[in-house]
Specification:
By secondary structure, the chain is of the alpha/beta class. It has two domains: about 120 residues, 3-Layer(aba) Sandwich (Cobalt-precorrin-4 Transmethylase, domain 1); about 120 residues, Methyltransferase, Cobalt-precorrin-4 Transmethylase, Domain 2, CATH 3.30.950.10. It has a five-stranded parallel sheet with strand order 3-2-4-1-5. The protein has a five-stranded mixed sheet with strand order 6-7-10-8-9, with helices on both faces. The structure holds S-adenosyl-L-homocysteine. S-adenosyl-L-homocysteine (SAH) binds next to helix 6 and strand 10.
Length: about 270
Amino acid sequence: MLSADRAGLPLGRRPGKPGTVYLVGAGPGDPELLTLRAAALLPQADVIVFDHLVAPAILDMAREGAERIYAGKQRGNHALPQQDLNLLLVRLAREGKVVVRLKGGDPYTFGRGGEEVAALFQHGVPFEVVPGVTAAAGVAAYAGIPLTHRAYSQACVFVTGHLQDGSMGLDWPALARPRQTVVIYMGLLGLPTLCRELMSHGLPPDWPAAIVMQGTTAQQRTVSGTLATLPGLADAAKLKAPTLIIVGEVVRLRQQLTWFEAPPDDEAIS
Ligand code: SAH
């Protein structure tokens, strides 16, 4: 069915269907990182349900009369509990609307997209998932840090650093490995714990690490150092969420690969 829909339509013309929920990734910040599918769907939406990390310039792509519903999801401030949000999407679709559920980054990467789609499936609501550039890909590129590199890193792991009861509950022996990049989402508050655990599980104190605030936006700021120094440097820089932490030898490449921000002045890791 889908392939027939796609057949013969020029790029960006596949229409949004009434009664369908489009779970759309909005990318990490820079509106130019939107997919063509997202850019085509936004002006067709009757209603947009959006999270707090979605850039205002992206919301402005909706048509004037479209309803905009804020779903929140800042740390400790969820405007709508997940269950109510799921039911809201079901109701809006049943009203025959073209519903765009807009999420920061990629909807299936730490975005609870799977839960929302499961609810739609259970209620028999048609849906489509539009991937987005996840923070790891977008922020690393704009920070001058390749996630893998033949000489330094053959694997890349994405984890959530969200603290629960003061602990991260991560598989530390699996993360504290050489030749691997670890990307930590939601890790700012847990940064000291993260660095301490990685060192106590075997990574050296001078292992490179960076934290990037508001990556891909005009406010992007990268602080880089080592597992031993990064918590102090991040604290001194007074960084605020959203931030992404990248740990691994690939961080050193920033010295040469920075293009979006001013070149790094830290000599600590060279
Ligand atoms: N679905 C999103 C992630 C949602 S979790 C994605 O695929 O990117 C939210 C976390 O993503 C933030 O706490 C932060 O760790 C990270 N993040 C999202 N946008 C970011 C940005 N512009 N700069 C730095 N980190 C970002």
